[in-house]
Amino acid sequence: MKRVFSGVQPTGNIHLGNYLGALKQFVELQEENECIYCIVDMHAITVPQDPKALREHILDVAALYLAVGVDPKKSIVFVQSDVPGHAELSWILTCCSHTGELSRMTQFKSKSQNKESAPTGLFTYPVLMAADILLYDTDIVPVGVDQTQHIELCRDLAIRVNNTRKKTFIVPEGRYLKEGARIMALDDPSKKMSKSAENVHSRISLLDDEAKIKKSIMKATTDSDGVVKFDAENKPGISNLLNIYSVLSGMSVEELEKKYEGKGYGDFKKDLVQVTVDALKPIKARYEEIRHSEELLEILRDGAKRAGEISEKTMKRVKENFGLGF
Ligand code: ATP
Ligand code: LTN
Predict the structure, then answer these.
(1) Whether residue 178 lies in the annotated active site
(2) Does 193 map to a domain?
């Protein structure tokens, strides 16, 4: 059995990009692997957060994990800050990383852009992410392609430690889906769909109602030639919508191109609204059921306990290999 680990930040409502790039994989993988899914609240505080809102967002993400099909009987679900090993290992790995490699991270560059001084946590964000992964002897990390560079850094750190000390870490692999790996913003298909973009119509959140979904899709940027055809380079808007339609409906892009031959973007978008509403309906229903339940808190407590036990074993080995503690 392989060990799987992944995390999502509690920084806002989960959108179709998070779902199709990451969460869908979480559900698939739990059938044949030992899966650990985390709500990475310590990553969220790399930018300012309102404490009350953060606490609510943690529970939102936890409930959404379960609503999309993560099963707490098969997978461990927990909150990062409930397991102290993440911060502990992060410091040790910080001492093994170099400022040069962290300066090259594109997420750091884009999030600190135009600022004279950026939070140090934003700079060391990828080291904490490496700690999350290495703490559980992870083999596979399901993520969207925007995380490739962070996964590479995690591998580099694991290999570096293994080469300079006793073999300490498993070197993990990223897992990316072919279709959902990079869902683009609806208002600007040159950017990835993002939780933090200002325009709410740039994304579809899993909890959006029908009217919002309709508005966002009908407004989505497309080109002016009106032909429903996949061409990511020259027709990025309609290609992104085709991609979303395909993953949500299970129909291939070729089948969809055939179905809409001779029809305009209007018909296509109207149907995509329906497909999206139908796909999100059961997720929303399950979310409503569980979000304010005692069961959710129980699942997180139990998850933290189980994750804590695994992490303690790793930390014992790491400290031994680094000559730390007694
Ligand atoms: P923000 O957009 O505010 O920076 P985010 O949604 O990218 O946040 P996370 O919540 O940490 O950040 O992402 C959770 C998972 O969703 C990660 O695996 C990430 O790769 C994936 N993901 C995020 N955006 C997309 C997207 N547009 N397409 C596919 N996968 C995505
Ligand atoms: N940086 C990731 C979130 C994240 C993560 C992880 C993903 C934090 N720690 C460990 C996988 C494994 C992001 O998606 N923005």
Answers:
(1) no
(2) no
Q: Please indicate, yes or no, whether residues 207 and 155 belong to a single structural domain of this protein.
A: no
154 with 303, same domain?
Answer: yes
Ligand 2 close to Cβ of residue 40 (< 6 A): yes
The CA 291 to ligand 2 mean position distance, Å, reads 23
**Enclosing domain of residue 240:** 200-287
CATH number, residue 112? 3.40.50.620
Q: Is 192 considered catalytic here?
A: yes
Q: What is the CATH number of the domain that holds 225?
A: 1.10.240.10
Q: Is any atom of ligand 1 closer than 6 Å to the C-beta of 195?
A: yes
**How many structural domains comprise the chain?**
2
Q: How far is the CA of 22 from the centre of ligand 2 (A)?
A: 10
In a domain? residue 189: no
Q: Helices in 3-119 by DSSP H: which ranges?
A: 16-18, 24-29, 41-44, 51-68, 85-94, 99-103, 106-111
Q: Are 176 and 304 in a shared domain?
A: yes
Identify the H or E element spanning 161: helix 148-164
Would you write out the chain's pLDDT as a tens digit for each of its 326 residues?
A: 999 999 999 998 899 999 999 999 999 999 999 999 999 999 999 999 999 999 999 999 999 999 999 999 999 999 999 999 999 999 999 999 999 999 999 999 988 887 889 999 999 999 999 999 999 999 999 999 999 999 999 999 999 999 999 999 999 999 998 876 789 999 999 999 998 899 999 999 999 999 999 999 999 999 999 999 999 999 999 999 999 999 999 999 999 999 999 999 999 999 999 999 999 999 999 999 999 999 999 999 999 999 999 999 999 999 999 999 98
Best mutation site among 61, 106, 146 for ligand 1 pocket (most ligand atoms within 8 Å of CB) = 146
- DSSP class of residue 183 equals P
CA–CA separation, 67 and 287 (whole Å): 5
Residue 207 CB contacts under 8 Å (≥ 6 apart), including other chains: 13, 64, 280, 284, 287
Q: Tokens 């994990």, residue?
A: 65
